[in-house]
Amino acid sequence: MREIEASGSRFFPETWKPLSTMNTSGPRQRNSKQGEDQKTTATPLVNQSGETSCVLPIPTSDPRIGLEVSELKQSFLDSLFCNLGRIPSAATPHDLYTALALAIRDRVLNRGVQTLETYLERDARMVAYLSAEYLPGPHLANNLLNLGIWDQTRQAVGELGCDLDFLQQQEEEPGLGNGGLGRLASCFMDSLASLEIPAIGYGLRYEFGIFDQVIRDGRQVEITDKWLRYGNPWEVVRPELTYEVKLGGHTESWTDEQGRYRVNWKPQRVIQGIAYDTPVLGYRVNTCNRMRLWKAEAVESFDFAAFNHGDYYQAVHDKMFSENITKVLYPNDEILQGKNLRLEQQFFLVTCSLQDMLRIHKLVGRSIEQFNEKWAVQLNDTHPSLAIAELMRLLVDEHLLDWDTAWRVTTNTFSYTNHTLLPEALEKWPVDLFGALLPRHLEIIYEINRRFLDAAQLHFPGDAARSARLSLIDEAAGRSVRMAHLAAAGSRHINGVARLHSDLLKQSVLRDFADLWPEKFCSITNGVTPRRFMAVANRPLAGLISRSLSDDGWLKNLGELHRLESLADDAAFMEEWRAVKLAAKQTLAARIADRTGVSIDPTSMFDIQAKRIHEYKRQHLNVLHILALYLRLKNDPLANVPNRTFIFAGKAAPGYFMAKLIIEFINAVADLINHDATIHEQLKVVFCPDFNVTNAQCIYPAADVSEQISTAGKEASGTGNMKFALNGALTIGTLDGANVEIREEVGADNFFLFGLTAEQVQACQSGGYRPYETYEKNASLREVLDFIATGALSWGDRNRFRPLLDNLLQSDPFLVLADYQAYVDCQEQVSVRWQDAEKWTRQSILTVSRMGKFSSDRAIREYVERIWLVPPMPVPEPSAFG
């Protein structure tokens, strides 16, 4: 950042005065673009009794919401002085970022107020997106893009001696999700606003988000993510929106004077949830929806009775205990205490959100029986599926609806998106734990289950085995509540997130529900927002595309990318395309050198696998191939192996031993190869620490090859595959998740396919797969695994990677060895293709031009038309102060 002048006309123009010094009793002089007097209109302030208490002048135009350079400068300075109490000579970089963020937030919130007024006045039908995770990424750049003021803001802060890129780097992103699920939720929020769909996203305001990852001695070390340590300028606390949350205790039942069966929940403890709103602005529209996150607090923060008796710890105990619920994102759930906290988090999310929806419902004057007509609630995976039982409790116990009416309302309110086929990821809660924490909800789930199984018996009479499979209560190995079954039974629609995933969902984990209710099931393939992952993450590429297409309409209609296809053979365009890619690779190379100390060649092929570390995603298959290339070069230094840089990024769950061992494996191979001078830097391997949205925005644009090599049938969809392809990477992958549809769209010639299909995987595993036989028959594989077994990657320690080898040779649950040779052969095709620069560039252009289907806008339109039935509601241009 250039040095900031503390005085003079550069940072503090002589005509500038902070808002707090302005005379608000009449017209005021401002340093506006024209330098003219700003006219004001006297607006009465009315108190609760209806009496006019004073008159405040409200300007008909205001620099707090203007988009001109002079207005942005004025607003930035006002925020620095009036909101932060800083002068430039004492301001830290974060102060300057915060001042800019507050200035931009004013413009966003102005549209948010107009949006809220529009929705209330027109009694809009609303989408409520319930998600335990969100990964919105940095807000500043996205809001600048959506407001259309990127260049104006750069000029404004530049004229004040600041650099916009430097200020953006000061932003802490909210790490409120573990990976793809949370990022998808944020893509959907972006698209809902951009398509002008009335919506609100509900989630949890974790004080500490997903851990920051550092690599020490090749191992992952988790560091606390203190994303709130400097505050969050984008959120607005709403202390008036506070809801009671009951936990534990017991229930008491009776029959009232009307003969109705009634239940009263007597909780063991009560906490409260407080709303924090983050505005989500649409792209070049006035619609600004809200992401409403809940923070847990004690009903009473300080126990004076305990304090007066000298028990200082007990005086604040309730506050600390209550706030634990939103203290940290998803604790390790391997122990009972962790499971209990996770269940508390999920209930806290759904009860605060539903109570808020009921408040809004009452505000617009609707009857409680019309709740499903006002709200379309989407359950983002099983985490919020408790909402079904909680809405039933609220309707039956609090609003005194009869059971059948309440169930009709409930089942017409919710829809459920399934995100996984892995049995271990389909949440189940031990009945004892569930009942101790949520006694009333267990009773309600038992009643739902009784009525549901009675109805199922009418369709499948005498089929006891099917009833056991359908039951919301799993009786095997200790009784437990099946949350996916609750979501399926209580939802109007159930969807998978890719065509293959949806088919497998109906054939496997929810097969009996599909047999019972085939009309409930549909498929909506995921998408990603091109605003975040192209226009923000890869501005040079977005600029090239817009110039070549003569407009930027493709950011609203990604299908317009098909017009690039006519340029795929244009020599000048291809040269520009390669220049943009090289610049992105240079940027990533500089970032890697700064963070890891590893120097990489930007002209080499960047082969990247960036995603959560998990056995089914098969990062270790990638590494086996890298070792095969290394051994090949050691045996034949003249082998035709083009220069390659293999880049990995991703976090392993803290309690997932094998995933963390895979990270060690990657780094051990990197250490071996990067320090071996005999291969003349033909190969480099790098692990980029702390994969998050900010780092992803640097990684996706730089990729030449996108590794999407999960075991077929295990990945629900994937969205990283879409982000890489939209930035011009060619995919090597299996027929898994959305890979199937990406290959169909971009063309088989532009996709490097290998591996078993989902059907072949199932047949292999059910047919008695013996991985050791594969090892014995494949000389290349045997050489690689034997090399690892010697301890060559661990200074002679043969035991360090023994668990990994034993897993592969004895069970190989994700068929790494079965797909090894096909993967190696396919990678040879990648190497050959890379050496033809013209052909590679052409395929990169064609890939981008054919990715229009994979916009989150398209996905949201399908949800709107097929599930939610919520029409768009354009918001008019906001006036000053909303």
Give a written overview of the molecule.
By secondary structure, the chain is α/β, with parallel strands linked by helices. 45% of the residues lie in helices and 16% in strands. Helix 6 (180-194) packs across helix 33 (856-868), helix 20 packs antiparallel against helix 21 and helix 22 crosses helix 29 (779-789).
TL;DR of this structure?
The chain has 882 residues and is an alpha/beta fold.
Mean pLDDT: 91
N- to C-terminal separation? 34 Å
Shape: globular
Strand arrangement, largest sheet? Answer: 9-12-13-6-5-14-15-19-20
**Proportion of residues in helical segments:** 40-55%
Largest sheet: 9 strands, mixed
Uncertain stretches: 1-10, 12-60
Number of strands: 26
Question: Roughly what fraction of the amino acids lie in strands?
Answer: 15-25%
Count of DSSP H/I helices: 33
- Tell me the Rg in angstroms: 29 Å
Oligomer: single chain
Kindly name the structural category: alpha/beta
